[in-house]
TrEMBL record:
<dbReference type="InterPro" id="IPR001282">
    <property type="entry name" value="G6P_DH"/>
</dbReference>
<feature type="domain" description="Glucose-6-phosphate dehydrogenase C-terminal">
    <location>
        <begin position="223"/>
        <end position="520"/>
    </location>
</feature>
<keyword id="KW-0560">Oxidoreductase</keyword>
<dbReference type="Pfam" id="PF01182">
    <property type="entry name" value="Glucosamine_iso"/>
</dbReference>
<dbReference type="GO" id="GO:0006006">
    <property type="term" value="P:glucose metabolic process"/>
</dbReference>
<keyword id="KW-0313">Glucose metabolism</keyword>
<keyword id="KW-0119">Carbohydrate metabolism</keyword>
<dbReference type="InterPro" id="IPR005900">
    <property type="entry name" value="6-phosphogluconolactonase_DevB"/>
</dbReference>
<comment type="pathway">
    <text>Carbohydrate degradation; pentose phosphate pathway.</text>
</comment>
<keyword id="KW-0732">Signal</keyword>
<dbReference type="InterPro" id="IPR022675">
    <property type="entry name" value="G6P_DH_C"/>
</dbReference>
<dbReference type="GO" id="GO:0050661">
    <property type="term" value="F:NADP binding"/>
</dbReference>
<dbReference type="GO" id="GO:0004345">
    <property type="term" value="F:glucose-6-phosphate dehydrogenase activity"/>
</dbReference>
<dbReference type="InterPro" id="IPR036291">
    <property type="entry name" value="NAD(P)-bd_dom_sf"/>
</dbReference>
<protein>
    <submittedName>
        <fullName>GDH/6PGL endoplasmic bifunctional protein Glucose 1-dehydrogenase</fullName>
    </submittedName>
</protein>
<dbReference type="InterPro" id="IPR037171">
    <property type="entry name" value="NagB/RpiA_transferase-like"/>
</dbReference>
<feature type="domain" description="Glucose-6-phosphate dehydrogenase NAD-binding">
    <location>
        <begin position="35"/>
        <end position="217"/>
    </location>
</feature>
């Protein structure tokens, strides 16, 4: 097979009449084996086979010989046809003639095989076949390249198989390419690095970040060096106003939810792509840009100089449809809530004399208004134009590394004409002098000097050529990786329980995601505007305001979930402060379920002046499980609220479902004990504030349909039966709830829309629709319903 291909190569070279190419062919540097593990997956289909075919086309002239293997878990009868379909779709670049491309593609297909790579025996068989082919064809081996296009959890096992059975001999090189994610946080990255280090040397590992293969990203350091005489005087805190590194996407996360919900936008984009760009912009210029060790050391110096990034240096969001996508793809129930962010803006500062005080913004998100990526350095402008405000001197001064897409549609480096005319030394780049009528980040394109690559190349193809050449300065070393996770892990930990701001997606986001930088902190710029239903004109909630109206004849507050929770938290604090002023104490009863979690986080993280020392917290209902178990309402309340606030332990009143080392046994009289405690401590048994939720069957507290609730008379606490496990519950009765001064019913999520519609039409019937039995005798009832539940 190899001999046939070599004859074809010689024939191709002869067709071109290049005697020099013939000599190179005779002086082959050796044979290279390429193995793509996961060779029929999406990444391989979209990018990898195209990149390796391009490498093959380019190296034909250099006389290299190749064999390619697509490895997968499927047996050959399934994997081989799938691989062949991928290879059939390959094409050449424009500069390769149609005839030549057809011949090269035919060769490539002949050189490519599918292999089942599941067991150690599979890898041993692969190694044996490689050795046998080399021997039969009398070829010298140059090296072996394994590209692991598989989930990260499989890396260590595959690396071990490669190490034990597939290492080349006779001085040939081994290169193993790893795709992100490289861990989930610092500790997991450290563990993965240690596992891989047991099988592979650091110089054999190529951790790929495809952003480093983008032509404009790869141009950052050369641009800085080529324009050193212009940039040295202004690349500092005295002249730079801010740095923005932005990657916006219009797509959602559909099809990737299983991965995305574990990682989110910070791990998926900011920790790697945007962080790498940030280091390239800010690191000390290496004397030799090709020296990977010097580049790495300069990057590490930046990581050491970065100030810690905490909760006050970040805002997060989540597009509205994400919750439903998670429920569908992960087969979750309708009340499942994910707080994984799909949008994030993070503020960083470098603590050194050159960059001190310069805000560095890293921003990325899905379902935004456009697809675009760029890094922008905005310079201070000390010129004020008294009359001619359109003068070039008064326009923004900025350098933009434009990664692609957006209004410009092609990668470019742009320099404001009021800064300097950049040097163009690279023969592979050109200056653009004829422009379309477009604006880029506030300036017409004609106000920039524009440099762009003469030929646009795909990032994976670029990096594959670097791997083949053994160039490591476009890849992530172990030290670099751990330094990056060291920066991001504390922030991720602090955001673990933060609820993201919900945004609708696309152009409808408006100014909802606009951010404000104040000192060393960042926040959303938009405030919630309180307006009434009349002011809304009875229209939809498109403006994202808080809407006040009526539901079932009582007051209703409605908004998008984040604003609704903020409003409820404010109302709750107002009620608490009023009760403390009047009585010196505030009695609050809280229900279980997932709906109150966002409220708990809001209270813990934003309402620092809440009068917790004067507050008594009671339970509306409880499952008959030990309080240490995750299903316990008290456990949830403790983990998400109580442990984060300064409330005296004797002010906390869990329901006594576990007495005498047993659960909810009638003779232990737990319900009566709790009722007596209420009567003893709560004046007139009248709670100041009761927070309820509503289940899909309209149950509230643990009062379920089908029971005769009026038979409980004046009892305040009873044992009930739930149709779902755990069946036994303890609950406040309608008598206890309806004696409260204020009752809030919180309803959130699209899954509750049908229920809200039904409740708006039915008459009071607490046996069939238990929540309709909530009718405070002398207090007030307010429904808090988010737009998802209200409008569907």
């Amino acid at each position: 097979m190899f001999a046939t291909v070599l004859l074809l190569l010689v024939a191709l070279c002869a067709q071109g009449g290049h005697g020099e190419e013939k000599r190179e062919e005779a002086q082959r540097p050796g044979h290279v084996t390429v193995v793509i593990v996961g060779g029929t997956g999406d990444l391989a289909k979209k990018y990898l086979w195209r990149g390796f075919f391009e490498l093959y086309v380019n190296k034909v002239k250099g006389g290299n010989t190749f064999s390619f293997y697509g490895g997968g878990l499927s047996p050959a009868d399934k994997g081989k046809p799938a691989l062949f379909e991928i290879l059939k779709a390959l094409s050449c670049s424009k500069d390769v003639s149609q005839e030549r491309c057809a011949l090269l593609k035919e060769q490539f297909l002949r050189l490519t095989q599918y292999r089942e790579l599941k067991t150690l025996e599979n890898y041993q068989k692969l190694a044996k076949d490689i050795e046998q082919d080399l021997k039969q064809e009398g070829m010298t081996e140059a090296g072996r390249l394994f590209y692991l296009s598989v989930p990260a959890f499989a890396y260590a096992d595959i690396a071990d198989k490669i190490n034990s059975s597939c290492r080349p001999t006779s001085g040939a090189w081994l290169r193993v390419v790893l795709e992100k994610p490289f861990g989930h946080d610092f500790r997991s990255a450290q563990v993965l690095a240690s596992q891989l280090g047991g099988s592979l040397k650091d110089e054999e590992m190529y951790r790929i970040d495809h952003y480093l293969g983008k032509q404009v990203v790869a141009k950052i350091l050369p641009f800085r060096k080529e324009n050193k005489k212009f940039l040295d005087p202004i690349w500092n805190k005295h002249h730079i106003e801010r740095v923005e590194i932005v990657l916006k996407e219009t797509l959602d996360a559909k099809g990737r939810i299983a991965f995305y919900d574990q990682y989110g936008v910070i791990r998926d984009v900011l920790q790697n792509h945007l962080t790498e760009v940030m280091t390239l912009l800010s690191m000390k210029l290496p004397k030799n840009l090709s020296n990977s060790e010097e580049v790495l050391n300069n990057k590490l110096q930046i990581f050491r100089s970065l100030l810690p990034v905490g909760k006050k240096q970040a805002v997060v969001g989540q597009y509205q449809a994400y919750k439903t996508e998670v429920q569908q793809e992960l087969n979750k129930t309708k009340d499942h809530v994910s707080i994984t962010p799909t949008f994030a803006a993070v503020l960083a500062y470098i603590d050194d004399a050159q960059y001190e005080g310069i805000p560095i913004l890293m921003i990325s998100g899905k379902m935004l208004d456009e697809r675009v990526g760029y890094a922008r350095i905005v310079f201070k402008n000390d010129i004020f134009c008294v009359q001619n405000h359109n003068s070039v001197h008064c326009k923004p001064k900025q350098i933009v590394f434009y990664f692609g897409h957006g209004s410009l549609q092609y990668p470019a480096v742009l320099v404001s004409k009021n800064l300097f005319k950049p040097v163009l030394k690279d023969a592979e780049w050109k200056e653009v002098t004829e422009h379309k009528d477009v604006n880029v980040l506030g300036l017409p394109i004609s106000d920039y000097y524009v440099h762009t690559p003469k030929e646009q190349r795909e990032a994976y193809s670029e990096l594959i050529s670097h791997i083949f050449a053994g160039r490591k300065n476009s890849f992530i070393s172990t030290e670099n990786l751990l330094a990056s996770w060291g920066l991001w892990t504390p922030l991720l930990s602090s955001l673990a329980t933060s609820f993201p701001r919900i945004y609708p997606g696309g152009a409808e986001n408006g100014d909802l995601l606009d951010i404000c930088v104040k000192g060393k902190e960042i926040s959303y710029n938009s405030e919630v505007v309180i307006i009434s239903n009349d002011q809304m004109g009875g229209t939809s909630a498109k403006g994202f305001q808080v809407m006040q109206g009526k539901f079932r004849g009582t007051d209703m507050v409605s908004a998008w979930s984040e604003e609704l929770v903020n409003r409820l938290a404010e109302d709750l604090q107002e009620a608490a402060e009023a009760a403390v002023r009047e009585n010196g104490v505030f009695h609050l009863a809280l229900s279980g379920g997932s709906s109150p979690l966002a409220l708990f986080h809001r209270l813990a993280l934003h309402h620092f002046s809440f009068p917790w020392r004067e507050t008594h917290v009671w339970m509306v209902d409880e499952r008959c499980v030990p309080p240490s178990e995750a299903e316990s309402n008290f456990n949830t309340l403790h983990d998400h609220l109580l442990q984060h606030v300064r409330i005296p332990y004797y002010n906390i009143h869990p329901m006594p479902v576990q007495l005498n080392q047993r659960l909810c046994v009638e003779e232990d009289r737990g319900a009566l004990l709790y009722e007596n405690e209420i009567r003893a401590l709560v004046n007139g048994s009248s709670f100041h504030f009761v927070l309820l939720g509503v289940g899909y069957d309209s149950h509230t507290a643990s009062l379920f349909p089908g029971s005769k609730w009026d038979e409980h008379g004046e009892k305040l606490v009873v044992m009930t039966e739930s149709p779902a496990k755990p069946h036994q519950r303890m609950s406040l009765t309608f008598s206890a709830i309806n004696q409260a001064r204020r009752v809030a019913v919180l309803v959130m999520g699209k899954g509750k829309h049908e229920l809200v519609t039904q409740l708006s039409r039915v008459k009071d019937n607490s046996d069939k629709w238990p929540v309709t039995g909530v009718k405070p005798a002398s207090g007030t009832l307010v429904w808090y319903i988010d737009y998802d539940a209200l409008l569907g």
